[in-house]
Amino acid sequence: MSVNGTIHLHALRVMRTELGLPENFRDSIIIKYDEVFRMVDLEVVEFIDRNGLNDTDESFGVAKIESWRKKEYTENWLSEFEVKYAFPIHFPTGFVKEPGFKEKLKNWQRLPYVKPYKREFMYHLNRQTTEPMEPSKSCDELASRSAVVRKKCTFGGVERYEKRAVAIIHEVLSLTVEKLVPVERLAHFKKDLGIEVNIRELLLKHPGIFYISTKGITEIVFLREAYSKGCLIESNPIYDLRRKMLELLLLGNRHTRELGMEREVKDEREVKDEREDMTDDENGWESREGDFVIPILESFADDNNDSSD
């Protein structure tokens, strides 16, 4: 999806958890599989495809959204014209649709755009923007050429360019483990993926595709179609493992609390028993003391009576 087939490791590093990459992914994946990846420099990696994955694997280089489009076309009998460039839309409860909104949405769904893995045009654009100008060119010619580059950069219009950006972000979210990512981390991919728009504004502009959670101090964007009633629809091995680990941690915390409560109850019982034993001891000592004194007094009284007789 990148403009020139390369990506900065820093972008991958900040999104390592969301992408399910190990901490040492540079050595354990990128350097290890040198038939697929090549380090351009210390912080840039390039996809080289020496094994011809593009030719042997039909699913390689195909966006996740295409499987949904195929299903809509084959199972729901929708025309190719309607679904070829469409996205699944799920508006939140209470979403207010202004007059003319449905027509605008329909036109936007039909609007063609350059799909994320189509690199031919991006390569051509990259050559045009990086190719040096001839010194003999006039200012008007330079301005004209710059205008042409900007026009091509928008792929025929601002809406098409924004729609391509939507498709790229949609694919990035589809590649994550839980179909979510902090909004600020997407900004690290802007340069490599050729996204020249404000990402947050773009996400807010399409609430039927993306959902931004503002709970806490970090804004997190979710892929709406991947969730139902707050739960991930399709799980994956990494997600399942993380859920099990979380359940174990929660179970351990609960058992720790229960054990602590049991210890408190046990301590209270021991203290109560000690108090009862102490009371019994005190009562027993008083009775023994009384049993000891009374006979002495009785014997003393008997002696007095005998002497008086």
From TrEMBL:
The region called Disordered is annotated at 265-286
Q: Give me the stretches of Basic and acidic residues compositional bias.
A: 265-275
Q: Name one Pfam family in it.
A: PORR
Give the top-rank taxon of the lineage listed in the UniProt record for this protein. Answer: Eukaryota
Molecular function via GO: RNA binding
**PORR domain span:** 1-252
Q: Please give the PANTHER family that the UniProt record associates with this protein.
A: PROTEIN WHAT'S THIS FACTOR 1 HOMOLOG, CHLOROPLASTIC, UBIQUITIN CARBOXYL-TERMINAL HYDROLASE FAMILY PROTEIN
Name this protein carries in UniProt: PORR domain-containing protein
* Originating species: Anisodus acutangulus
